Amino acid sequence: MPPKKRVSDSAPSPRKRARGTASQPVAIDSQSYQSQPSALSPPPPYTHTFESRLRESQPEDAIVAPAEGSEQATLAPSSEAADDAVDEAFDAHLEDNYDGIDWGRLKLYTKPITTHQHKRSWIYRHGYRVALLKDPTRVFFICHWCFKHKLTDIGIGIYNTSAAVSSAARHLSEQKPGHRLVAPGKTPVASVYNALTTARVPISQAVANQINGFSKQRFRFAAVDWLVANNHPISEFETPAFRRLIAIANPLAEAALWKNHKSVSQYVIRLFDWLRPRVVHELSQSLSKIHISFDGWTTKGGKRGFLGIVAHYVNSDGKLRDLPIALPQLTGAHSGDRLAEVVLSILEQFSISERTLGYFVLDNASNNDTAVAAIAHELNFNPIHRRLRCGPHTINLIGQRLLWGRDADSYNNEGVDELADEAAFIKEWRKHGPLGVLLDIVNYIHTPQQYNLFEKAQRTAYRELPHDADDKLTILQPIKPVVTRWNSYFDCFERAIKLAPAINAYANTHIQNTAKEDIYADSQGKNRPAAPQWMRSDGLTAADWAVVTDYIEVLRPLKECTKRFEGRGEYSFGAIAEVIPTFEFLLTQLEARLLYYDCVVHDAHDEAPEDHLPINLRAALLKANEYYAKLDDSPAYYAATILHPRYKHYCDQAWAEKPDWLALNNLNFQALWADYKSLPLPRPCYTRAPKKPSNIDDAIDGIIDPTRGNTKEDEYEQWKREPIVGKGTDPIQYWFGLRDQYPNLSKMALTILSIPASSCECERVFSELGDLLEPRRRCISPELLAALHSVRRWRRAGFGGGDNDDMGQSKLTDEQMDVLYELSKWVGEDDDLDTWDDG
Fold first, then answer.
1. Which of 575, 689, 555 is nearest to 640 (CA)?
2. By CB neighbour count within 10 A (0-12 exposed, 13-18 middle, 19+ buried), where does 124 fall?
3. Quick count: other Cβ atoms within 10 Å of Cβ 225?
4. Which listed residue, of 290, 540, 708, 827, carries a Cα 20 to 30 Å from 528's Cα?
């Protein structure tokens, strides 16, 4: 029996069978193969490009292509390709290879007593395994390259591996010729600088400084910042494709990335803990008091509840901030007392005290009233004054009344029997009138077949339009309304008017088909097939579309008011100073429209317009007046209006015929102003040597401006004489510039004018939260979810800047963080978000 073939593992030994180069390995099987045609073609002309010089910085056999599916990029390791599986004998990988060894140069060493029993370390592919002659139990590693170049004669390249091979592995990975080797499956971090220096390319100091100096900390910070800002899964860094992408750009960056999502989660928690003190510090430096809005949501199915808490304030630079500060999980009942408990805890965490706490802007839910009352009891303030109502939420209630009525006083009938009849008529109209029929048709388009049919009807209708029609080829979908949002009905009606020809064609198709089916069923003596009631009607007539148009025009002012309340980024829009002027505008519009319908005799003849719209207008007007009267509960609304540099005289003129309104609100304003004007004056930012007074100048000033120099005059009375500013002036910046002239009044103005008109920022928070939970984070722990969202918003607001090298470590260990934040809980339940609303 012939002896087993021994395959050399050492780098210098020749290969027995050609397998291509190390960077372009050729698969070998038991079948014969033909030479590649490309081998006969002449080589391409050689050019000294930068790329070629970079390739020449490593010998061909020192560059290994990544295996298929590998996460690593092709860099510059010098580990050889896998052993030849065809020629390798059974368990040959456990045998020691001494090809090329000169024992005469290793007089202190001998072969080990036995070969490897289980697994041989990868380092012995690149060196000899020997034992000490006087103590064969002590095993050493002799580097092939160092032995060949006689460096072992002076003690270099010899390592004791009796206990561990780490020292020999570090030697092989050194960045010097013949080395740069790592274990299979690991890729050494090769840099452009090393490649250029190996190729002896001259590098200036400036270029070297640009190439080198890679900051692992800054890259990790930027990577997590990108991950969170763009809502990528935390496991993104684990994906092979992403790691290959980063490795191609910079191997150092790929090596710096975490390989486990749990490590990324721990970093996010540390980043959250590092950013929170910076948020607390900015809140402590705010020029205004800190106003709070909060709202609650639960995931679908009621599995988890959250409370989004947002702070509104003017920072030390005079910039208006709407900053989410917390996203605690709600457990138990969403009662007012429970909400107060959670909010008080968050206020304490962010050092918001009775002295710095401002107003609460919340929706009209009754549990919010209870919550503010409980907080007021703890922090000692007037809950009625500090509890403000979300403007768009109030407009929504008015819009619901305008659409669906439901108020006995709106029928203009005194008899009980007549009231019952009116209520029955209006209920029937809502269900089967033009609006009800339109909504039934739109909601019926909910399957692919119905969408295709509607699109076909749309194209048919477009063919009948003039050739120059703007929307001739625009295919649109109907907008489905949301029951709790009146503005969705406005959008639905507006889109429906635009698609009226297509909706008529679509409805008529169903009406005609239903009529044919009914005729056939009657002829066969069978029951008629089930169908929506609108399919057995006349569809929508021209008069019906006129009713839809009327409702659009009536609802349009509400749409404008909502935009005014929510437009936080446009000068004063979205601020509380808009509330009184906007309510006045809305009431005027509703009253004018109702006055128009009061002139119509609705039962004069069969073609007379029905009275559903004036009935709903009266219901909406009653609701609007109800909430307008509630503005008197807090002096903040009036104060914001008269402290606005453009609206300062608005109430005097709008309420000129209501002197009792003015008297009451002025009295409340003076009580509020008294809390501010008694405050000690702040220290001036700089001091200037006092100028020697001149009696003549004082006398002249006394005649020109009697109030000049009168430091005892009330700041508000002085400011009232200031001219009204032009449209578009930012009131926050206006008062920020007047802090030296009106120190106490400006503080009050900045506090009052920074109150938002709505709590819609909370809705934005949970809109983003819904994105965060998709698609692979539905079961993420609430604490980590809150940290992710907070980091996202705080970084967007500019906290942390780009300087993260001093980022403090979390006080918790990784194990403690895992237990506290449940970082390991990932995999998904279907856990989308939905809102809860108790009012």
1. 575
2. buried
3. 18
4. 540
Average pLDDT of the residues in 460-486:
76
| CA distance linking residue 822 with residue 810, whole number of Å | 16
Residues in the chain: 839
pLDDT band at 20 (very low <50, low <70, confident <90, very high): very low
At a CB cut-off of 8 Å and minimum separation 6, what does 62 contact? 22, 76, 77, 78, 180
**Cα 671 to Cα 324: distance, rounded to the nearest angstrom:** 31
Q: Which of 282-291, 418-427, 735-744 has the lowest mean pLDDT?
A: 418-427
Distance separating alpha carbons of residues 325 and 328, to the nearest angstrom: 10
Residues 375 and 383: their CA atoms lie apart, in Å, by: 8
Give the single-character DSSP code of 771: H
| Residues 283-330: tens digit of each pLDDT | 999 999 999 999 887 766 667 788 999 999 999 999 999 999 999 988
| 373's tokens | 């009352």
Taking the C-alpha atoms of residue 778 and residue 193, their distance in angstroms, rounded to an integer, is 44
Cα separation, 388 vs 360, whole angstroms: 6
Per DSSP, 190 falls in state -
Instruction: Note the pLDDT tens digit of each residue in 433-452.
Output: 888 899 999 999 999 999 99
Residue 145 has pLDDT above 70, yes or no: yes
DSSP codes of every residue in 692-716:
PP-HHHHHHHHHH-TTTT-TTS-HH
Peptide bond into 775 cis (omega under 30): yes
> In the numeric block, which tokens belong to residue 739?
């802090």
Q: With beta carbons less than 8 A apart as the criterion, state whether 412 and 601 touch.
A: no
Output the six-digit token pair for 738.
């007047």
